[in-house]
């Protein structure tokens, strides 16, 4: 299934947040929760229900895929990684946000630049 | 440990809300992730973060699962399973019903909230109490094949000794001769001195065990190994196993702790070989276990001091083993008649012993929780019934449009199921939270408290409760519906009929039974509250406030060797000097030492004597009393009053005439109607093993003191004889000091004195006497608080019930009241009509409830202390209280009836 990427933009904040984590490293669900909470200073809290719901949806859309554990550890948890499509979608979303921020700066919303 | 598993179980159950496909793919992973989160939160500690994690997760899973369901239906429409048409019809009509229900419930949020909360409280209270019962009473002991395990005791009825200890020599006999058992093991509660990781001497509660104890019970170490028979070999190095708690406190739960060597204050060392699981509690609060020295060669092998457990062979029943124990004991008695005069054995299943004394209290609480459930169901049935009748028009319209009666019934049942499910989810959350809370609040001496939690059995219980209650209260409106002609509501234009309907009568019945059940509950709670206050007001025979205590044991030495405390005189001198110095401390008013502290760790036991001038009794027929050794200041430190005669003085020394002080119980038991002062006792010098020695065999009674409660406030005082410590020097003593100001300063002062006298001596069990008193009634307080909150809950629910019924009837009779007032009825008469109804229902409930309480109060009489089960004050005040609450609940709707303006009422339709 090759989704039309343009369709995914704008992205839901939770989705984008997870893609940002996966861009840095492949990790398991618990890892995603921890990094999201750290990156946002605890402001965004993903609970397990929402997290796996989003992961399931993004897997269906082909933005995220699972890999077996990154080593031969006994850790049975699945690791998630971002796909090429996911990378593209995150990029588009970032561009969209960037242009929004530019506009916001141009009206001095974020203070004199 | 176990509780974590149980929150998992709850989460796993919740996961079933998700579409199967999703659950299969992500379920296990979600549980594992939750575990990691929970572990992280637990590490930080505290109850609140865990509760908040649980609530957030719960809500999130619930929310996303519902969304997931909605998506799944769209997703699966192409790949629909091959289900039969009939199945699909049922499913789709069920879904339709559910959606319809959710829609109408969302339209009436207050109603929905009220019903959900009422059910949630009922289910929550029941589930929480059931989880305690499940953990304490129903879960098998954490041993292998626990049903085959028995406890074995000696008993001597003629000396009033029940469930007394077993002597090592008898133990060895049983071990050699018993055919019906697979094994026999023993243990003994003791104290072990060690140097902690900072090098300070500490005394820890410990156990001496036979080498086979852990293997026989089937207990495995969670790190390293348990103690084994090889540890009892004569040349084996000294080894110990430690408790889970000590492992965490001293070694931060280091998995490689086995092999660590700990120094002892005496200069030796012991090697830790393993860690026992958290729930292992033989004996009691032990933290360090080591093996008995060779039982056969023990100096005290003939003294009875061991606790014994046996495993009955699977092919034999406990009763067969019991009779074999008895016959082996007969053989022992024949071979050594003097020592065994009057002694027998008793055997009881291990499980009964562990929970003895708490089961009746717990079942009472469970019964009370069940009553709460009944009241909650009655309330909900009432609410639904009122609503069902209010909905007659709606239902009539649906039936006019072609809905069959069966379809309508199913719709109503679906509604109650939706309610009970929502109630169950609320209840389970409440239960999960309150279980954590109960464990915090619960008395430390409630056995097996660590095993309490929400596991699958509790979940099944909650599920069954939910389905049954949903069915019960769902049935009520349905049955009502069956009686009604579905068309008639359309004909009369929906205007309320003034006459009494079957529904009214049923509602009245529900209110009456609610009032009755809450009267029973509140009377039960009242009795328990009064009993608790009576218990607390019991004179313990000493003043708890303003005194601290701590325990100390002087090390014994093998006979014939020399050491600082090797002779009785040295032991006596040590305590003399120690107490004298404590008395010199600033802020200390009085100080003394006693072999046992009231309500503390029991260390004394009954010993025999006979009274001079009376016939010398045959061996085994002597009188017995508890022997207690005290220094002169002990009674002053405890503020135990002298009834007659004198206390001990520093001049009651080993070389002066033997003297004793007795308590009132001894005076009235052995000298009824006579003056015991000046009487002499013989035969008091007996072996007390390593504990100490009675130096004088023949003593005179010089004083009588007030009875002191040693075992517990509710336990009758046994006859006691007090000996001056100088004439009966014992090694293990409890120091008590009465003080003003800061207790910590006093304790620090005592520690400093001890360090200067002998820095190798550790102290333990430092307490304020008020804390000991509190602990001794913790179990009673626990039951009282729970039952009191159940009583309060019952009254609240019942008053909501009365209020609901009356409001409903006022609302329906608005037009009637309007007409009455238009025709000239006074406002008082209208108000009276409403209140009269409320009060007549209440009165009937009060009568039935009182009758019920009289019947049921027999069940609580076993846990009551010094309160009659038919205490008239309690009955009167509960009836008064319920009447007041009921009047308030009926006045509010009555007031609303008064507000009716005749014109508006008539215009209403």
Topology at a glance:
The complex is a heterodimer of chains A (113) and B (909).
Chain A: H1 13-24, H2 29-39, H3 48-61, E1 64-67, E2 79-82, H4 84-106
Antiparallel strand pairs in A: 1-2
Helix pairs in contact in A: 1-4
Chain B: H1 2-15, H2 20-44, H3 48-76, H4 85-107, H5 109-138, E1 149-156, E2 161-164, H6 168-177, E3 181-195, E4 201-209, H7 213-217, E5 223-224, E6 239-242, H8 244-251, E7 261-263, E8 269-275, E9 288-291, E10 307-312, H9 318-335, H10 337-340, E11 344-349, H11 350-355, H12 359-390, H13 392-400, H14 405-441, H15 456-483, H16 488-491, H17 502-537, E12 547-553, H18 568-584, E13 588-594, E14 606-611, E15 623-630, H19 634-638, E16 642-645, E17 659-663, H20 664-670, E18 680-682, E19 699-705, E20 720-724, E21 732-739, H21 743-757, E22 763-768, H22 769-776, H23 778-812, H24 814-822, H25 827-861, H26 872-899, H27 902-907
Parallel strand pairs in B: 4-9, 6-8, 15-20, 17-19
Antiparallel strand pairs in B: 1-2, 1-10, 1-11, 3-4, 3-10, 5-8, 6-9, 7-8, 12-21, 12-22, 13-21, 14-15, 14-18, 16-19, 17-20, 18-19
Helix pairs in contact in B: 1-2, 2-3, 4-14, 5-12, 5-14, 5-15, 6-9, 12-15, 12-17, 12-23, 14-15, 17-23, 17-25, 17-26, 23-26, 25-26
Structure described in brief:
With 113 residues, chain A is mainly alpha-helical.
Classify the secondary structure makeup of chain B into a structural class.
Answer: alpha+beta
**Terminal CA distance of chain B:** 63 Å
The helix tally of chain A amounts to: 4
CATH topology of chain A: Arc Repressor Mutant, subunit A
Please, how many domains of chain A? 1
Largest sheet of chain B: 11 strands, mixed
Share in helix of chain A: 40-55%
Number of strands of chain A: 2
The backbone outline of chain B, from C-alpha atoms, is elongated
* Ends apart, CA distance between termini of chain A: 44 Å
Sequence of secondary-structure elements of chain A: HHHEEH
Describe the structure.
The complex is a heterodimer of chains A (113) and B (909). Chain A has a single domain, classed as Winged helix-like DNA-binding domain superfamily/Winged helix DNA-binding domain (Arc Repressor Mutant, subunit A, Orthogonal Bundle), CATH 1.10.10. Helices cover 53% and strands 7% of the residues of chain A. Chain A has helices at 13-24, 29-39, 48-61, 84-106; strands at 64-67, 79-82. Chain A has a two-stranded antiparallel ribbon. Chain A starts with 12 loop residues before the first helix and ends in a 7-residue tail after the last helix. The relative contact order of chain A is 0.18. Chain B is elongated, with a radius of gyration of 35 Å. Chain B is α+β, with helices and mostly antiparallel strands and 909 residues long. The chains are: A mainly alpha (113), B alpha+beta (909).
